[in-house]
Amino acid sequence: MSLTHRFNRVSVLLAFATFLPAVAQVPEQTATATNIVTVKIKLDDVSMIIVPVRINGSGPYDFLLDTGSSKTLVDQKLANELALPRETEKPLVGMLSSAKMSVVHIDSLSVGGATICGGQIFSSAPPATVTGKVRGVLGEDFLRNFDVLIDYRHQSIRFDSPLGSMAEAAVGEHLPLQLNGELHGQSTYNRLLVSGHIPDLEDTAVLLLLDSGTNNPTLFRDNLGVGAAQRMPMRVGNFNQWVSLVASTRTVRSVNLGGNSLANLTLVAISRRAEVDTDGLLPTSLFHSIFISHKGKFVILNPSFPKY
C-alpha cells in the first residue's frame, strides 16, 4: 500500500524527542476515558499538534503533543501559578543534548475526558524551539495509558480505553510497536518504535521513532551514501536551545514499513548527536491519520473505521 505524505521539505525543527535513560519504569497512572473521547486539535504551520490540557482541573492550556517525548513538560511559570509541588531534579536526555529539569507533582492531567490521576511531570523554561505560545509538552507518559487516534485530516485526536472499541473497529495492517528502547544494555521507556527498511540505503533494517514533535524524517548517521546532497550547516532545535551541526539530505525512492511504503521521501542525516536509542525519527504528520494501541503494541498507518 502506498501512503501519501503531507509534505516533504527540510526544516530546522527536527526533534524534541526525549527519554529517561537507565531508570526503572514508572507504573501506569490510574486512567479514565469516557467511551471514546474526541478532542479538536490545532496545527501550526509546520504541522505541530497543539492540544488543550488541564492540570489539576485548571485550564485548558495549549500544549504541544509530542509522541517522541517520554515525559510531559510544563512551563515553569505555569507550574508556579498552579503551585505544583516541586519534588526533585532529574536529567532529561534529548536527541542532541541533555538538560537537568525540576520534577513537580500533579493530582490530575487531562485532555477532554481522557484523564490520568496522580504522577510526576517535568518543569522547565518554555522551550525556545517550540512554535507558538504553548505552556508545555504532552508526552508519552500520558498517552501510553490510552489507545490514541491522531487524525490530521479532521484535526482531531481520539482517546479510548486500551483495546477498546476503536481497536476492534480499526482496519489496516497492524505494525508491531516497541514501547521500550535500549541504550548501553539498559531499557529506555515510553518509546514508539517501528522497524522499517530503506532499499536505497542497502535495504538495512532501521528502528524509527514515531514522533509528532518532529517535522522532517531524520536518520542519526554520518552520511546517506551515494546521491546525498552536499553537506550543509543546519540549526536544529532541542530543549531550550538551538544546536548548530552539519547535515546532509537525500531523497530516497521509498521507506518501507511492513506492507506500507512512503515514496520519494527526503531524509536528513545528522552526524552530531547525543547518545540515542533509535536509528532515526519518523514524523507522524507523514500520514493522514495514525492509530496507536499501547496495550496491543501495534500501530496502524492511515487506518479506516468502516463501523463508524
Question: Which residue ranges are poorly predicted, with pLDDT under 50 across at least 5 consecutive positions?
Answer: 1-17, 21-27
The dominant shape is globular
Estimated radius of gyration = 18 Å
Main sheet record: 8 strands, mixed
| Share of helix, binned | under 10%
Please state roughly what percent of the residues sit in beta strands, choosing from under 5%, 5-15%, 15-25%, 25-35%, 35-45% or over 45%.
over 45%
The first-to-last residue Cα distance is 22 Å
Structural class: mainly beta
Number of helices: 3
Overall residue-averaged pLDDT value? 82
> Which series of helices and strands comes N to C?
EEEEEEEEHEEEEHEEHEEEEEEEEEEEE
Number of strands: 26
Features:
mainly beta, disordered N terminus, 26 strands, six-stranded mixed beta barrel, 308 residues, 3 helices
Structure, explained:
The protein is mostly beta strands. Helices cover 5% and strands 48% of the residues. It has 3 helices and 26 strands. Strands 1, 18, 19, 20, 21, 22, 23 and 24 form an 8-stranded mixed beta sheet that branches. Strand 5 (42-43) and strand 6 (49-55) form a beta hairpin. The protein starts with a strand and ends in a 7-residue tail after the last strand. Residues 1-17 and 21-27 have low confidence and may be disordered.
Question: What is the compact description of this entry?
Answer:
The protein has 308 residues and is mainly beta.
Could you give the topology of this structure?
Elements: E1 2-3, E2 18-19, E3 30-32, E4 37-40, E5 42-43, E6 49-55, E7 58-65, E8 73-75, H1 76-81, E9 86-94, E10 98-111, E11 114-124, E12 136-138, H2 140-143, E13 147-151, E14 156-160, H3 165-169, E15 175-176, E16 181-183, E17 186-188, E18 193-197, E19 205-211, E20 218-219, E21 232-238, E22 241-257, E23 260-270, E24 280-283, E25 289-293, E26 298-301
Parallel strand pairs: 1-23, 7-12, 8-11, 19-24, 20-23
Antiparallel strand pairs: 2-9, 3-11, 4-14, 5-6, 6-7, 6-10, 8-12, 9-10, 10-11, 13-14, 13-25, 15-26, 16-17, 18-19, 20-24, 21-22, 22-23, 25-26
